[in-house]
Amino acid sequence: MVLYNGSAYRPFLLTGFPGLEASHPVISILFCVLYLIALVGNSAILVVIWVEESLHAPMYLFLSMLAASDLGVCAATLPTLLKLFWFNVREINFDACLIQMFFIHVFSLMESGILLTMAFDRYVAISNPLRYTMILTNATIAKIGVGLVIRAVAVMLPAPFLIKRLKFCKANVLSHSYCLHPDIKLSCSDHRINSIYGLIIILITFGMDSVLILLSYLKILTTVLQIASQQFKALNTCVSHICAVLLVYVPMLGVSIIHHFGKHVPPVVHIIMGYMYLLVPPVLNPIVYCIKTQEICTRMLGNLLKL
Fold this sequence. Notes:
Layout: E1 12-13, H1 24-51, H2 58-87, E2 91-92, H3 94-127, H4 132-135, H5 138-156, H6 158-164, H7 192-226, H8 239-261, H9 267-292, H10 294-306
Antiparallel strand pairs: 1-2
Helix pairs in contact: 1-2, 1-9, 1-10, 2-3, 2-9, 3-5, 3-7, 3-8, 8-9, 9-10
């Protein structure tokens, strides 16, 4: 049996929709539309928040971080996806695959952390409105942003080096049109350390973040119930954030369930869920925030009318 490692390895093969290769150019139109919505929507949010000084508040600064992380996910996945669906180029070399995997997971981890800070932001705004801007100053928000980047990079940095030590045999077909950490299953050597490491990452990032987000909203609900009934209006500012949390964690939960318990599920379901996990948040987050956040919607429409 021929073994390969990182230094002498034939390219991995990207996977689109098996059996529908002839329809890939047509399918790519749908992906192009989704990516266009994600790129334009998130870029518009960044520009509007940057230009409008009235939106330089903690809530909107955190929203701009979320938009930036969504753009990062799009930038990390778009090249290989278009290369596959437009030009039917399936090959991606080992190092390029590791780089793509690293950035996809880094931006995903950043997104989870940003959603947690947005939950904390809503809790402070509702429970202690008079000291809201004193607690979440621009300097504090900048430190939080840097901390989220450092956390994501530090957590994911060992992953490429752990994968580099693995040996690979003839199996080299990836599960999707981009590289993800679960594809270490292609290795023919013992990858238990990698699997355990991946599980630990999920528990200390997505797992912990989701628990803390839930606790934040329990505290918010408790606070609102203790205040006069008119303060229920404050919960309206949380709706868009709750939608963003669901858009991230529901597809992620679906992918995890199918990955662990859907061994008899058709491969196309795995593929579709994988695309939903990475594409649903960047595409729908700008739409949700434009609909539910009047300030963002008003500024966007105003800038469009000026053009």
